[in-house]
Amino acid sequence: MRKKHLNVRPKGAFARLDAGLVVEAGTARGHPIRVRDSSCPNDPGYAGIFGIPLDNSDLELLALFANDCCIEIRGTDNIDARLGTGRLFCIPDP
User: Fold this and answer.
1) DSSP tag of 52
2) Is 61 strand, coil or helix?
């Protein structure tokens, strides 16, 4: 990831969420949430979540994301940027 010029915090993490459930959670809490594909050839797996309160004031929405929408969370120490592919791959748990 550092080869892609991304600043990665040593104790950072990436979360993978179910986009359909994210939209449903937003609707249930009264937020018109959109999940937009922001991928590009050098970063094919990125999407942005738009419409959530910027101040994180809806704690119940955040709880829905964590409890109902989250598929997996990986620490940056468990992600490998394979040379020559331009893609990020998760390293499976042993």
Assistant:
1) S
2) helix
CB-based contact 72:66 (threshold 8 Å)? no
Average per-residue pLDDT in the chain?
78
Structure letter (DSSP) for residue 93? P
How do residues 57-73 score in pLDDT, each as one tens digit? Answer: 999 999 999 999 999 88
Element (H, E) at 14: strand 13-17
> Strands 79-81, 88-90: parallel, antiparallel or unpaired by DSSP?
antiparallel
Rounded Cα distance between 80 and 94, Å, is 15
The contacts of residue 84 (CB under 8 Å, 6+ apart) are none
CB-CB contact of 88 with 79 (8 Å): yes
Mean pLDDT, to the nearest integer, of 26-44? 87
Per the DSSP assignment, residues forming a β-bridge with 17 are 70
